[in-house]
Design goal:
This protein has 186 residues and is α/β, with parallel strands linked by helices. It contains seven helices and five strands, in the order ααβαββαβαβαα.
Length: 186
């Protein structure tokens, strides 16, 4: 049986990147979620797909959560949290959302390659993800064997799952309790 060589290299890359994720950032990010009255989640493109899945898991924890852009998403208010996934940290629509959230007295948390970029600079909590993206003029300190922002998106999936597990522990939630909130109109 032939070994999936490229898959193994991708996993090795992700393992190296995972070593650079700081537990303190995961904890502070989780703190922001716990302190929020309501959680709003946003991302564009493929990062938006990851963000949407994260909002779904937060709902499974019993939190009041909205994915930005849906017709049923209310206005953000003081005491709320906006979570943004953006590799570049400079996506125009997401920068506007972060600024609007801050104007309304909400907190902002970001998952990004560039904490020093606009969105990270506005954030109250940032998870710095090693990765590369062709969408930034800032220079990344890492390289990737994968095209485009693949490594960022993959790491963001894993980071979001890690945050969910931190929150499960803190909130005393079990998988069985979460499953009770799983969609049943499928």
């Amino acid at each position: 049986m032939a070994e999936a060589v490229i898959l193994k290299k991708i996993l090795e890359e992700l393992m190296e990147n995972a070593k650079q994720i700081r537990q303190e950032e995961l904890e502070k990010f989780s703190d922001q979620i716990q302190m929020a009255k309501r959680v709003f989640v946003a991302g564009a493109g493929r990062s938006g797909f990851v963000a949407r899945a994260f909002s779904n898991r937060l709902m499974h924890l019993g939190l009041t959560v909205y994915f930005v852009g849906e017709p049923t998403t209310p206005s953000i208010q003081e005491g709320d949290l906006l979570i943004i996934a953006s590799g570049s940290g400079e996506t125009g629509s997401l920068k506007v959302m972060a600024a609007k959230a801050k104007e309304q007295g909400a907190s902002v948390a970001a998952i990004t390659i560039f904490p020093e970029a606009a969105i990270g600079s506005m954030a109250d909590a940032v998870i710095h993800v090693p990765g590369v993206t062709p969408k930034s003029e800032l220079e990344s300190k890492v390289t990737s064997l994968q095209p485009m922002g693949n490594a960022f998106e993959q790491m963001t999936w894993l980071i979001c799952d890690n945050v969910i597990m931190i929150l499960m522990d803190r909130l005393g939630k079990t998988e069985e309790e979460m499953f009770k909130l799983h969609a049943n109109l499928e």
